[in-house]
Amino acid sequence: MRLPFSLPAVFCLVLLAVTIATPSSSAQDIFVTPVPNAPFSGVVDVERSRVQRDGSIVNFKTIRDIGRDSRGRIHNESRALVSASSTEAPPLLRIHLYDPQTRISTYLNPPARIFWTETVSHPPSTVPPTVRYGSPTGDGLPQNEFTKEEHLGIHELEGLPVHGIRESQIIPDEQSGTGKEIVVADEYWYSEDLRINLMIRHSDPRTGTVTMTVTQVTRTEPDSAFFEIPDGYKPARSGPGTNQ
User: Fold this and answer.
1) What contacts 87, CB < 8 A, 6 or more positions away?
2) Which of 14, 23, 31, 194 could form a disulfide with 128, with the two C-beta atoms 3.0–4.6 Å apart?
3) Inter-residue contact 94 to 64 (CB < 8 Å)
4) pLDDT number for residue 146
5) Gap between the Cα atoms of 195 and 85, Å rounded
6) Whole-angstrom Cα distance, residue 79 to residue 32?
7) Res 145: pLDDT
8) Count of C-beta atoms within a 10 Å radius of residue 72
9) What contacts 109, CB < 8 A, 6 or more positions away?
10) What is the pLDDT of residue 22?
11) Cβ burial 122-138 (10 Å sphere, 16+ → b, else e)
12) 230 C-beta neighbours (distance < 10 Å), count
């Protein structure tokens, strides 16, 4: 997402917090595909561990609501990571709405109660970026002595059949930075019914682990307000006399 440089400073703070709360780029996010006629809503449970410089491990968690209606409109939240022992609700940082019919993405900043929109020139894909891992006929990554791809079979999550794939990459000792060979693993569980990954797991001994699981799946039509700008939000100003 490209933001105007003149947006209020609070946007930069929120964007920084989202970056901190987002897992390593080597682990794909739960991508809600804008497909029609497959409405659902759910909650993404995120568990993350981080390896500190001294070798200790710190555990975090967060949750966020996601959903899609019969028109293919999507709702996706970003919340801050909190300590795994916290009993407080993770702060809501941002909400992304997308309408495939208008190709308009709307970004809500709940702390500031402001929003901005942009028209997408290249609509998002209707399949997750990692669908090749979740499909038995996917091409996967080229196999070599440092990569291994395993089909984990069909299991059930949230009452839906999902197909699992685990991809392991061997990092030689001279490149791992740890003085020994390590294995970085990514696991994807894809639901053909919903056309999204229902679970993603990333593990790297150098940095930690991330697990994202879609729970509380309801396959009914979400309230239309879930995909609209709430009352009380104002357009963000991107420049003198201009609203973005």
Assistant:
1) none
2) 31
3) no
4) 73
5) 33
6) 16
7) 66
8) 20
9) 10, 11, 14, 93, 94, 115, 236
10) 38
11) eebeebbebbbbbbeeb
12) 12
Q: CA nearest 79: which of 30, 17, 10?
A: 17
d(CA 154, CA 190): 9
Q: Which residue has the tokens 């801050």?
A: 80
pLDDT in tens, the chain (244 residues): 333 333 333 333 333 333 333 333 334 689 899 999 999 999 999 999 999 999 899 999 999 999 999 999 999 999 999 999 999 999 999 999 999 999 999 999 999 999 999 998 876 777 776 554 444 444 555 555 678 889 999 999 999 999 999 999 888 776 666 667 889 999 999 999 999 999 999 999 999 999 999 999 999 999 999 999 999 999 997 633 333 3
Q: How far is CA 25 from CA 20, 148, 200, 204, 207, in A?
A: 12, 19, 13, 12, 12
User: Strand, helix or coil at 234?
Assistant: strand
From residue 208, give the alpha-carbon distance in Å to each of 22, 166, 184, 196, 241.
13, 17, 10, 24, 46
Residue 162, both tokens: 């999902």
Give 151's strand partners.
165
Question: pTM for the full model?
Answer: 0.78
Q: Are β-strands 40-51 and 234-235 bridged in parallel, bridged antiparallel, or unpaired?
A: unpaired
How is domain 10-227 classified at the CATH fold level? outer membrane lipoprotein receptor (LolB), chain A (2.50.20)
If phi over 0 gives left and psi between -120 and 50 gives alpha, with beta otherwise, what is residue 50?
Answer: beta
